[in-house]
Amino acid sequence: MNYCDSRPNVLEWGSEEIAIPYRSPLDRKIHRYFVDFYVKMVDSNGKVSKYLIEIKPKRQTIAPKPSQRKTKSYLYEVTEYVKNEAKWEAAKEFCLDKGWEFLILTEDELKV
């Protein structure tokens, strides 16, 4: 990730290094969620913060609108959204326990 490598305030970072257990609402089994990025950085006041960051297209962060037709595409979107919600809730709890912050970034934040 060029951003992290080129910023002096980024102390360390990694990609898909942290596994967070979560219970899938689909099969009720425990699975492992590998968050996209871990970043440790220092702000302008010298405070060190740690973040877990997930990168997703904005459309995948919004619940699909109910549809009269239950197409394969619609069912897939619903399934993925429900699964992602469970992952993100587990990540929020994980970060809360450690004093970290969990962020979901979309194209709106990344301005690609």
In short:
With 112 residues, the protein is α+β, with helices and mostly antiparallel strands.
Detailed description of the structure:
- With 112 residues, the chain is of the alpha+beta class.
- The protein has one domain (2-110).
- 32% of the residues lie in helices and 31% in strands.
- The strands form 2 sheets. A 4-stranded mixed sheet has the order 1-4-5-6. It has a two-stranded antiparallel ribbon with strand order 2-3.
- The longest helix has 27 residues, at 72-98.
The structural domain count equals 1
Number of helices: 3
Looking at the chains present, what oligomeric state does this protein adopt? Answer: single chain
- What separation lies between the terminal Cα atoms? 14 Å
How are the strands of the largest sheet arranged? 1-4-5-6
Question: Structural class of the secondary elements?
Answer: alpha+beta
Which spans of ≥5 residues are poorly predicted at pLDDT below 50? none
Shape: globular
Q: Order of SSEs, N→C? A: HEEEEEHEH
Keywords:
single chain, 112 residues, alpha+beta, two-stranded antiparallel sheet, 3 helices, 6 strands
Topology overview:
Elements: H1 2-6, E1 10-15, E2 19-23, E3 30-34, E4 37-42, E5 48-55, H2 72-98, E6 101-105, H3 107-110
Parallel strand pairs: 5-6
Antiparallel strand pairs: 1-4, 2-3, 4-5
